[in-house]
Amino acid sequence: MQVHYTESKREDAESSIERPKNIDKPRAFTVWRKSSMGFQGTDGFSVYDDSGRLAFRVDNYSRRQKYLTKEIVLMDGAGKPLLCLRPRIMSLRDRWNAYEVTECRKKQPNSKLFSMRRYSMLQNVDKAEVSLAKLEDDNKAKLVPGFRTEGCFEKRSCKIYNCNGEDVAQISRKTTSNASVLLGNDVFSLVIRPGFDSKLVMAFVIVLDRIR
C-alpha cells in the first residue's frame, strides 16, 4: 500500500501538514466505526477526543464495491467538510485519492492531497508506504519518502511512522475505563503524536478501513 501526498499551492507537502500550536503531548481519540447518524446497512465513523467531544465524523456510506462508491467525506464534529476521499477505479492495489473540498466539486479534480494504496497486491500484506510530493521549480511534484505503516489494522494493532522512523500515530484495541474489558474492533483508540495533522491521520484510517 502506498500513499502519495500532493499540494499544488505550497512549496512542499510537509509544509501543508497542520502543526497545532502549544500542544506538547499526544492527542488521544476514540474511534467508533459507526456514523452518528447511522442507518441500517451503512457505515461511517464517529471520532471523539479525550474530553468526549465529537471531533470528526463520516456519515453514512455503503460498504459496497469500490467502483460503485463515489466518494467519502471527512467532516469535523459540527459537520463541516474537511476533505473527500475517492477510489481510483482501475487500481490493483485499491488506491484512494484525497482532495480538498473545493476540488471535490469538480468532475475531474486536479490537485490531490494524497494518494493511498496497498504496498502489495497480496491481500494479507498490511504494510503501507507514504510518499510526499515536493514541488519543483517547474511546479511539478516530485515524490519523496514520507510515512509507512506497520502492523495489522484489521486487528487494531498498527503504527504510522515518518521517514525518520519516529512513530506518528498508533491504533490499538480499546478497553473500558478500568481496563477490565477489551472492546470489539468497531471501537478502537487512535493516539497521534504532537505536531501532526489529526485530520490527515484520520483520513489514512478511513482508507485503511476501506482497503483491508
Written account of the structure:
By secondary structure, the chain is mostly beta strands. 8% of the residues lie in helices and 41% in strands. The chain contains two helices and 13 strands; from the N terminus they run βββββββαββββββα. A 13-stranded mixed beta barrel has the order 1-8-7-6-5-4-3-2-13-12-11-10-9. The longest helix has 14 residues. The chain is globular, with a radius of gyration of 17 Å. The termini are close together.
Please tag this protein with its features.
212 residues, 8% helix, single chain, mainly beta, 13-stranded mixed barrel
Strand content: 35-45%
Distance between the termini: 10 Å
Number of helices: 2
Mean residue pLDDT: 78
- Outline: globular
Please state how the strands of the largest beta sheet are arranged side by side.
1-8-7-6-5-4-3-2-13-12-11-10-9
Structural class by helix and strand composition: mainly beta
Q: Write down how many β-strands occur, each being a DSSP E stretch of 2 or more residues.
A: 13
Integer-rounded radius of gyration = 17 Å
Helix content: under 10%
User: Ranges with pLDDT <50 over ≥5 residues?
Assistant: 5-19
Task: Please render the helix and strand layout as text.
Blueprint: E1 2-5, E2 27-32, E3 43-49, E4 54-61, E5 72-76, E6 81-87, E7 96-100, H1 101-104, E8 112-116, E9 128-135, E10 141-152, E11 157-162, E12 167-173, E13 187-192, H2 198-211
Parallel strand pairs: 1-9
Antiparallel strand pairs: 1-8, 2-3, 2-13, 3-4, 4-5, 5-6, 6-7, 7-8, 9-10, 10-11, 11-12, 12-13
